[in-house]
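Example complex used in Figure S2.
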Amino acid sequence: MNVLYFAWVRERIGVPREQVDSQAKTVTDLVEELKAREPRYEAAFADLSALRVAVDQQLTDFDAPLDGAREVAFFPPMTGG
Amino acid sequence: MNVLYFAWVRERIGVPREQVDSQAKTVTDLVEELKAREPRYEAAFADLSALRVAVDQQLTDFDAPLDGAREVAFFPPMTGG
Amino acid sequence: MRIVVQEQPFDLGAEASAFASGRSDMGAVVTFTGIVRDLAQGDLDVMEIEHYPGMTEAALTDIANQAQGRWDLGDVLIIHRYGRMAPGDLIMMVATASPHRKDAFEAAEFLMDYLKSRAPFWKKEHTRGGASWVAAKDEDEEALDRW
Amino acid sequence: MRIVVQEQPFDLGAEASAFASGRSDMGAVVTFTGIVRDLAQGDLDVMEIEHYPGMTEAALTDIANQAQGRWDLGDVLIIHRYGRMAPGDLIMMVATASPHRKDAFEAAEFLMDYLKSRAPFWKKEHTRGGASWVAAKDEDEEALDRW
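Predicted assembly (456 residues):
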């Protein structure tokens, strides 16, 4: 699936998007897989309460299932307007 | 003093303003003097709850004193905006 | 603060644009525009607005001063027309600028609520069937209670 | 309904004027405009706004649809920029048209509250001293509770 990062999450991980092969069942599972990879993921996902997630461009929770998901995005709370 | 009429009060009385010599102490006294004059005043002032009054261009009540007042205006509730 | 009472039309676009420009100290601008509505029957020909010259300007200035006392406002604009207008014509506008969106919104609503019931304007609707003065609405008077 | 997400500046005057014109069925138009504020220190050079192409448009459309479901609205406009802006530049605007001023005001406030915390935009402030992401405010999240 495509994994996207925005704002300081993007800066900490160092790329705006990447293709990830994963069998993760939920967003939390995916986060754990990523954190196990490299310290930069560990740093970006250190405090999940400071993050938001969208699956297929819909805001959702970290316990959301990933069955059939094509795009998962991680970012800080939004500051538009 | 100058007495001004607006909207349907003006239409019922037939003039937009007139000079009135009066010793009325309050707005209510002035209204009673006017009502005693002619039926058109009686008609205009029949229901005071449907009227508003300003003394010297300040909204006020019918029991307001008229000492030194130069301008009294009668009109229906406002409908601006 | 700018208060304008005039018979001729005003240019909403130019006013809104000028009001919002150069405000790097104000993050939020709210405008309200009142437009002549056609009646349900669709036969309004002319909306005529009468006002009380002198008192109108004083009442609008007083309302704007009250708003500036209650909210953190950088600027206030009120424009209100009188005379004869057609359906779709702009009757009036208010604009508020504030560092905070909540203040800009609340102040604009306050201005409108007071202006509706406390500024000396009266509307008369002219239709094919005749002319009649618009009655004040209880809900407009009640709207003042929240301030 | 019109939803615009673009990098280039927009013309508030032209947009407000076009939005309010020809609306003899709508008596009330409210606009909100967001402007880049300089920081207290007065040293903001650039406000940079990042967004999530695709999701942004979907989120704004969803917010506008919710507003149209909850209030009596004739039309809704949302314009939001991304990219680099200077203090005083216009960031975004919303506009609502309704037969009733209360609906126009409430819907515009609702749009702003949701847009602030639920549309995928992120602000970064560039100053002489460096650059930092703007933190979300608790009060913006709490503002959603009233709807």
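The beta strands of chain D are 2-6, 28-35, 44-51, 75-81, 83-85, 90-98, 121-127, 130-133. Chain D has a mean pLDDT of 95.
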